[in-house]
Specification:
With 404 residues, the chain is α/β, with parallel strands linked by helices. Helices cover 34% and strands 20% of the residues. The protein starts with a helix and ends in a 10-residue tail after the last helix.
Length: 404
């Protein structure tokens, strides 16, 4: 019966846990690999040991909504427990109280102060602020307290990897396990169909994303960002542009450096096209408003997704009757989204009208020796306008259906 509930890698984790009860258990690796699911099982099993004792436990996530989405909803669905949070972001389990916290801000740790915990589950632990991690450790002073973390890989220089994962099998003075870390790859999840896994592998961009998401590797972001860009496959002559059903626009403000206004469109098959870009330096907002009005007249009254670092410019667009709004500033997520479009051959660049873009893309690279993934911030104005337009416009709603 157990083999029908757990994959072989998950069974190995359970068997080890039953025998050794490590103080800290880390489940790290690829997406959809089963690491969070087994973490949830170990967590529930741990709290059950304190049934009816009115103990307190901690659960953390990047934010409370993220924790609910990633873990709490799963626990409710799989085990049938009510994880509905009260006004204090707590729920009851086996006669104990589980307190939930977001950990993404520098001062998030303050809400954890003042109580003793008999355990802690940390979801996406590499995304938590170090202050919150330190505070959660301090709370876990109850006799028999244990800690369970799950995480996808990040930079190999991340302090979670260096201070905890790399200390796998570390023992305490009494010979018991202090840290046990388990590495997962996509293929460890034997409950996923081979078709799904093959599709996910094919859809995942090359380089860092494939190494991390599929193989669960802690690799640095390096080299050319859009490795899957192929000039022959991903560019088109203007005369071959298909019929476009929807248009929208991306704007990266500039003055000393280049300002860019880019036109995007989608055909009836859902493929995206960078149709045109206007690139200039030393131009004030009034000049860009004029260009925006020309674009509106030529392509239609659609959204302008703008760099929100200049709210005064966005306001000027709006006063002129242009539908301008700030764009998403999630840099790495936006880059990953664009990369997935190239990987899936869902993004094409019109050659004649995007010359600056085609110069920038080959030099758009990851910043070297950085703990945090970020692109080199020079000659990236066309790249920024693309991320603003595509990620902000397509990441939600029916347009995303074509990308699944």
């Amino acid at each position: 019966m157990t083999s029908k509930l757990f994959a072989p890698k998950q069974l190995k984790v359970i068997q080890f846990d039953n025998e050794f009860n490590p103080r800290i258990t880390i489940l790290e690796g690829a997406v959809r690999s089963g690491k969070t699911r087994i973490g949830e099982f170990l967590w529930v099993k741990h709290i059950h040991k304190f049934k009816g004792q009115n103990r307190k436990f901690i659960m953390t996530g990047i934010t409370i909504p993220a924790l609910k989405r990633n873990v709490l909803d799963d626990i409710s669905e799989i085990f049938g427990f009510d994880t509905l949070l009260n006004k204090n972001n707590e729920f009851k389990l086996f006669g104990n109280t589980v307190a939930c916290f977001g950990t993404d801000k520098i001062d998030s740790y303050k809400s954890m102060k003042g109580f003793t915990s008999w355990g802690w589950y940390g979801n996406e632990i590499t995304e938590s602020h170090k202050n919150s991690i330190d505070q959660a450790f301090k709370r876990c002073s109850g006799e028999g307290a244990r800690i369970f973390w799950d995480t996808n890989p990040a930079s190999p220089n991340h302090f979670i990897k260096e201070n905890y994962i790399d200390k796998d099998d570390e023992l305490l003075n009494d010979g018991s396990y202090h840290i046990k870390s388990w590495h997962f790859v996509l293929d460890d999840n034997t409950f996923l169909s081979e078709t799904y896994k093959e599709s996910l592998k094919k859809a995942t961009p090359s380089g860092m994303w494939y190494d991390r998401d599929i193989n669960g590797l802690w690799v640095a972001a390096e080299g050319m960002i859009y490795r899957d860009f192929d000039y022959d496959k991903h560019t088109i002559s203007q005369k071959d542009l298909p019929i476009i059903k929807d248009y929208w626009y991306g704007v990266d403000w500039g003055f000393e450096h280049k300002g860019v206004l880019a036109v995007y469109g989608q055909d009836h098959d859902g493929k995206c096209f960078r149709i045109k870009e206007i690139v200039e330096t030393q131009r004030g907002v009034d000049w860009w408003v004029e260009r925006g009005l020309e674009i509106k007249k030529e392509f239609g009254d659609s959204r302008f997704y703008c760099d929100d670092a200049r709210p005064d410019n966005i306001s000027a667009f709006r006063k002129a009757g242009l539908r301008a709004k700030g764009s998403s500033k999630a840099v790495v997520e936006g880059i990953s989204f664009v990369a997935s479009l190239f990987r899936g051959d869902r993004l094409v660049i019109v050659r004649e009208t995007n010359k600056n873009y085609l110069q920038e893309i080959y030099n758009y690279r990851w910043k070297e020796n950085s703990v945090k993934e970020e692109p080199v911030k020079e000659n990236d104005d066309s790249m920024d306008s693309e991320r603003y337009a595509l990620y902000t416009h397509l990441r939600k709603g029916s347009s995303l259906e074509i990308l699944k």
